[in-house]
Design a protein that fits this description.
single chain, 4 helices
């Protein structure tokens, strides 16, 4: 069975720069998302992921990056995605707390 791949901020930045992710999900609430997020990220707060899984089902075979503020929720949500058929799920280790690159607004 697939597992959630925890990747560092440097690995994340390299993968972002090479357009390696099919889908990037910011799991924080909308206010936090609006204060700065990764490029091309969509906002689906953790408490909405189960209800909105049908919206992202087309990405089950792509590389999906999940992130939150501290890197804990993204691991939990990653497991939910894997149970729902997603195969390549990545989590930003330490969350945005450890991401020292520019954010988008």
């Amino acid at each position: 069975m697939a597992t959630v791949n925890s990747i560092t901020a440097n690995q994340t930045k390299r993968m972002l720069d090479s357009n390696a992710f099919s889908l990037i999900i910011d799991l924080r609430d909308y206010y936090e998302y609006s204060q700065g997020h990764l490029p091309n990220a969509i906002n689906i707060p953790t408490n909405q992921i189960v209800d909105r899984i049908s919206q992202i089902k087309s990405y089950t075979n792509g590389n999906v990056l999940l992130y939150c503020q501290h890197g804990i929720q993204s691991i939990s949500v990653g497991k939910v995605l894997i149970v729902n058929g997603f195969r390549r799920v990545y989590s930003l280790n330490g969350g945005l707390d450890y991401y020292n690159y520019p954010l988008y607004y």
